[in-house]
Design brief:
The chain is built from two helices and eight strands; from the N terminus they run ααββββββββ. By secondary structure, it is of the alpha+beta class.
């Protein structure tokens, strides 16, 4: 009888400790998530919309030196507050790109992205470096670039001479709350 009671007492103590953790740490976190998730999304959008920070859908059109691009060719680019960026392009031979961005003027930003390129057989072909100057509109919901430039480097980092220019146009990804 003593053993059963001792086990039951330890279980209650353990259960009490878990309940304390639940109410002191986990529940405030859950409540914070619920409050943030149900808040008016425009409150968040307005605070971010003044700069380039955030995610964008980008279309890229070719120019001199650029091979013909399919109509579905585009990218998703996320600009972080720290000046870093991540880009995913709809080209199956290019891996997710990483890069940096910085402010040049009131609504003007310089961008550099590096993307690894692979052949259809999976062999590493080299690195594609894309650079552009982005002009943000007054509403901070679109940008354009007429000086998009890219250069290709072999697996050892040497320029291959394959370069091209084009244009890029971006539209900010906005919060679309569920009804």
């Amino acid at each position: 009888m003593m053993l059963t009671h001792a086990r039951w007492g330890r279980h209650n103590l353990c259960h009490s400790h878990h309940a304390d953790i639940l109410w002191r740490f986990i529940m405030p976190g859950v409540m914070t998530v619920l409050i943030v998730a149900t808040a008016d999304p425009s409150a968040f959008a307005d605070s971010k919309a003044s700069g380039l920070e955030g995610s964008w859908r980008v279309t890229i059109t070719g120019g001199t030196g650029t091979p013909p691009l399919p109509t579905w060719y585009q990218a998703l680019v996320t600009f972080g507050q720290d000046g870093g960026l991540v880009a995913t392009i709809t080209d199956p031979l290019l891996q997710t790109g990483h890069g940096a961005w910085g402010k040049k003027g009131k609504q003007t930003f310089a961008v550099t992205i590096l993307l690894f390129q692979f052949g259809p057989d999976g062999s590493f072909l080299g690195t594609l470096k894309a650079r552009a100057t982005l002009e943000l509109n007054d509403k901070a919901d679109t940008f354009s670039s007429d000086d998009y430039q890219f250069e290709f480097f072999d697996p050892n980092g040497n320029p291959t001479g394959f370069v091209g220019i084009g244009a890029a146009h971006g539209t900010r990804v906005k919060v679309e709350p569920l009804p």
